[in-house]
Design a protein that fits this description.
6 helices; single chain; 256 residues; 4-stranded antiparallel sheet; alpha+beta
């Protein structure tokens, strides 16, 4: 026990003798870390959650959903944002959550969310316009085909020798013509509705949660604390190393 106390006192003496070295290492570590931390701008992160509402199924358009919304967000051009932005997006149930982060100001990050939302809405509008145009084109072709089939049925009914309502062939052709007329009317109503409908009215990009911006770095207090611990540790090591070198020189001189 006594030997242990003597050794501990020796260690404390070495530390006391090298206190200025330890202090210098501590101050140097704190100064360098503080210079690095306080010259770095604050880094902020924000999150926004989108939800897509659309009524395109009535026209047979089913491709506009969360996956298309996610793809649109991920296609957001880098040059549309400032440099060094990080964009992440993921689907959660019926929603898409988007995260932006960068060393900037909260106001700049909020403005970036506004630009992102406006850009996504515009891209979705163009997408819906293309889909509506395609459905309109396909419907017009279908109407032309139905019209030809109806006219052909009418000719067949007219060419019958004796159009008798009791005749099974006449009944079959007449019923088929009625069905075609109903389908043709349905398609005509559909194409007229498509032509008169504003594509922007067919979907809504809702914001479930407004952008929540918070600072994520740099953590200056934590960095200073770590730098202080490392400075003390390196200072103590350096003090013991210098003490060892001095002791080795003294032994060498005594030996000579």
């Amino acid at each position: 026990m006594e030997e242990y106390e003597v050794e501990l006192i020796d260690y404390l003496r070495v530390i006391w003798k090298g206190k200025w070295i330890i202090l210098a290492c501590l101050v140097a570590a704190l100064v360098v870390t503080a210079a690095l931390m306080w010259t770095r701008p604050n880094e902020y992160q924000g999150t926004i959650t989108y939800r897509l509402y659309q009524s395109l199924q009535v026209f047979g358009i089913t491709s506009l959903g969360n996956q298309e919304l996610l793809n649109t967000v991920m296609d957001f051009p880098d040059d549309f944002l400032d440099e060094d932005f990080t964009l992440k997006a993921e689907t959660r149930d019926d929603r898409v959550q988007v995260t932006l982060s960068r060393a900037t100001t909260p106001e700049a990050l909020t403005n970036s969310f506004d630009r992102l939302t406006a850009w996504v809405k515009e891209r979705l509008r163009l997408y819906v316009e293309r889909e509506v145009a395609q459905v309109t084109f396909n419907t017009s072709i279908h109407i032309r085909q139905l019209t030809q089939q109806r006219d052909s049925l009418r000719e067949q009914i007219t060419e019958l020798d004796s159009p008798d309502p009791e005749d099974p062939l006449f009944t079959y052709l007449a019923q088929k013509a009625v069905n075609l007329e109903a389908l043709l009317l349905e398609e005509q109503v559909k194409i007229e509705t498509l032509q008169e409908t504003d594509p922007t009215k067919l979907f809504t990009l809702g914001t479930v949660v407004q952008p929540i911006v918070s600072q994520i770095g740099p953590n200056r207090k934590m960095s200073l604390a770590i730098a202080g611990v490392l400075g003390l540790f390196l200072g103590v090591l350096l003090a013991f190393f210098i003490h060892y070198l001095m002791g080795a020189k003294e032994k060498e001189a005594a030996g000579e």
